[in-house]
Amino acid sequence: MHQKTQVQRGKYMKKGQILAGGAATAGGELALGKNVLVAYMPWEGYNFEDAVLISERLEIQTHVTSQGPERITKDIPHLEARLLRN
What we know:
Elements: E1 3-5, E2 20-22, E3 25-26, E4 29-30, E5 39-42, E6 50-53, H1 56-63, E7 64-65, E8 68-69
Antiparallel strand pairs: 1-2, 3-4, 5-6, 7-8
């Protein structure tokens, strides 16, 4: 855990100001993720059917997160059904 202070000595703090940053933050925002290298491949080089290629291992690693298997649903919590009808 390497954290670096964002405050200089002798400066006053304001409410909501960032105190420290670390490996899991970027610009004061929580940034949990992984930098990956992907390939963008046009099919035959001429048409619209393009794809982004990733390895199967990366897909498995990101699908099975540390919080258990990823669940994809159309339901959005805390919203009424009438707001989701379209």
